[in-house]
Amino acid sequence: MRSWIGLLLGVSILAVAGCAAENERGGDAGAAWVGTITTEDDITTVRNQAGSLWGGTARLIEEASIGVEAGEDAYMFGRVRSVAASPDRIYVLDSQVPALRAYDRDGRHVMDLGREGEGPGEFRNPSAVGVDAEGRVWLHDQGQQRIIVFAPGGEAVETLSLGGARISGSTQSMVLSPDGRAFILDVVRPEGPDAARIVMRPHALEGEAGEPIDLPSFESPAYLEARGSNMVRFQEIPFRANGTWALTTSAALLIGYPDTYRFEIRHRDGRITAIERDWQDRIAVAPDEADAYREAAIAFLRGADPEWVWPDPEIPQTKPAFSRFVPAQSGEVWVVRPGPAALDTACNEEDFPPSGEPHCWREEPIIDVFGAGGRYLGRVVVPAELQWDPLPFINGREIIARVDDTAGTVMVKRYRVELPDGADP
């Protein structure tokens, strides 16, 4: 057991207090931040107990919109896989075309970079785009297992061969650091009895880029299973907590399991920042919402086994603490939380094929933002149409994201984060 002197030497404590009043919906309106920061060895724990540094709720102000229902090809999107930005350009990767398009900050089309094909500067199945500090544009061509690097003027200047495994299903197939290292989702298959590991492997123009980053191995989520004579279908149990992760541009790993409101930032140098927030505003799963998810799962699974019946697992009564992390280029962490949902009465579920989830329930996500050091900045109100897959590009008070309007038109919009009055920017 460590002595009290050792504990005193090994732990530094910062406590800040203010008004602890919180409103029911936002949890931070008009309240100063209250919490503690403790450091022991290499672990810093930030406990956000009440209030926020912004002292209120921020909102998004639209400043540019790209995308039309009908018109020029350069403004019609199909499947937006990735967005990125430099100080004077917005880059949109549309894998359905496929095309990598560049726009100015007002949304006017400037040029396309590369084209479909197998030659220099060409791509077959592009999955992600990023911009480094020099303004070079990095494109992950997952189909040909390579990275194509374009100069700011649009010409292809480098091609990096990746090798390794093709892995899909992640919202982060590539993360680009400002210093020009591209972390690519990969598999390490060691010789001997050791199990294969999923990693983010760094690649750089100069060759050697460092050691791969091991991704967390979470307990497998609880699935429902239906087996037919020639088909097997799986469906995740709705609203069960599942582990989630994301990699920041500084190569720190965000990791959390949302049965509690706690997650970690695991830095490359071995330090850990553990971030906790008082979780009083738990979101209930409405009975009608649970019924809709149960019926959708049954309809989907009966496509494999017409006699399938719902087993013992019950749908949780409350939603998980969070569903995903969105790392900002500037170091903040945006946490997307499942919010309250309502039935769209103008929507008819019979118009959609069974997919395992209902189509007519509209959820309002809750967006909490934390500073790079772990303190809670505040909440951001976002448009309901804003999509979180692909991950938006966020840098400071700017966010660029895919937005689908009510007619189904795919757009990319640039927003400014407007802080509440009196907040310190």
Structural overview:
With 425 residues, this protein is mostly beta strands. It has two helices and 33 strands. It has a domain of 166 residues: Neuraminidase (6 Propeller), CATH 2.120.10.30. Helix content is 5%, strand content 41%. The strands form eight sheets. An eight-stranded mixed beta sheet has the order 25-26-29-30-4-33-32-31, with no helix packed on it. A seven-stranded mixed beta sheet has the order 1-2-3-24-23-22-21. Strands 5-6-7-8 form a four-stranded antiparallel beta sheet, with no helix packed on it. The radius of gyration is 23 Å and the shape is globular. It starts with a helix and ends in a 7-residue tail after the last strand.
Set out the fold topology.
Blueprint: H1 4-10, E1 11-16, E2 34-40, E3 43-50, E4 57-66, E5 80-85, E6 90-94, E7 99-103, E8 109-113, E9 115-116, E10 122-123, E11 126-131, E12 137-141, E13 146-150, E14 156-161, E15 174-176, E16 181-188, E17 197-204, E18 213-214, E19 223-227, E20 232-236, E21 244-247, E22 253-256, E23 262-266, E24 272-277, H2 287-301, E25 324-327, E26 333-337, E27 341-343, E28 361-363, E29 366-370, E30 376-381, E31 393-395, E32 398-404, E33 410-418
Parallel strand pairs: 3-24, 4-30, 9-10
Antiparallel strand pairs: 1-2, 2-3, 4-33, 5-6, 6-7, 7-8, 11-12, 12-13, 13-14, 15-16, 16-17, 17-18, 19-20, 21-22, 22-23, 23-24, 25-26, 26-29, 27-28, 29-30, 31-32, 32-33
